[in-house]
């Protein structure tokens, strides 16, 4: 059962018709079996060298070792493809249905689980891209394409075959295709990563729910600080203390809920539904 002050905060924003924004990170997908970024499962071994995600997920590494980078992403895509949305994802999809146009979802996750749970792609700001989409590495066109599903399910250690490389070749210019994800040596933009749209939503947000992120990336920090500066309320949902925990405590009526999102989000949804249906009853 949620403490009364959390319920009050939620219901105040529901009744005020505030914009409610949810910002998610890898933690929401942990309960679906997808390793978080900064846990030990994120590392990758090439030969005798162990690489951190921050080294693999760069355009520079892709230029040097495209096959190794693809092997890493195809392994992650295979894990993501096998994963199912958990109760946390499903609760967020239900919040979207309940709140309609005053709900915004911003996600750092590239696993596609929010879309699988039912959040519509046009209202889901995938600010780090999506591992099931590809685009031309030479940027001969801005088009996004679906990752060929024949590449899913391959053995983690298997080197790319010529047939697989052919599937990962741009039909327009013959250059390599690359994963449609934001790399550490690249920058956010509006066209691919909803940069301005995310900050615009933050500026209108009365209540920001931050779920399962360690708070180390740029745009999520700008979103949270924008909400704080505009006098919005921040609730940080994460079993571990992180930079967003302090922002939440500083925000009016904000709080930190150190519980797993899969358990907590359905309770927050229930409180929202009660407020929406309860108030509308005669
Ligand atoms: P991290 O792996 O850095 O952080 C995951 C967070 O989720 C941690 O703070 C955990 O405490 C928390 N967590 C774990 N299980 C949870 C649960 N059941 N419920 C709630 N929280 C839980 O992942 P991110 O913060 O998402 O960027 O990383 C942000 C970005 O860094 C990623 O999108 C990626 C990486 O660079 C790109 O790929 C561009």
**CATH overall fold name of the largest domain:** Rossmann fold
Please state the structural category: alpha/beta
* Highest-level CATH class of the largest domain: Alpha Beta
Tell me the number of strands.
11
Mean residue pLDDT = 93
| Strand line-up in the sheet with most strands | 5-4-1-9-10-11
Global morphology? elongated
What compounds sit in this structure? 2'-O-acetyl adenosine-5-diphosphoribose
Taking pLDDT < 50 over at least 5 consecutive residues as the criterion, the unreliable ranges are none
Q: What pattern of helices and strands is seen along the backbone?
A: HEHEEHHHHEHEEEHEHHEHEHEH
Cα-to-Cα separation, first versus last residue: 26 Å
Please give the radius of gyration in angstroms: 20 Å
SS strand fraction: 15-25%
Q: Report helical residue fraction.
A: 40-55%
CATH architecture of the largest domain: 3-Layer(aba) Sandwich
How many structural units, i.e. domains? 2
CATH superfamily of the largest domain: TPP-binding domain
Helix tally equals 13
Q: What about the largest sheet? A: 6 strands, parallel
Could you walk me through the main structural features you see in this protein, from its secondary elements to its overall organization?
The protein is α/β, with parallel strands linked by helices and 282 residues long. It folds into two domains: 6-32 and 85-128 and 194-276, TPP-binding domain (Rossmann fold); 40-82 and 132-181, SIR2/SIRT2 'Small Domain' (2-Layer Sandwich). Helix 12 links the parallel strand 10 and strand 11 (255-257). The two termini are 26 Å apart. It is built from 13 helices and eleven strands. It has helices at 4-15, 27-30, 53-56, 59-64, 66-82, 87-99, 113-117, 162-167, 190-193, 195-203, 218-229, 243-250, 261-280; strands at 19-24, 44-46, 49-51, 103-107, 124-126, 129-136, 145-146, 177-181, 205-211, 233-237, 255-257. Helix 1 packs across helix 13 and helix 11 (218-229) packs parallel to helix 12. The structure holds 2'-O-acetyl adenosine-5-diphosphoribose.
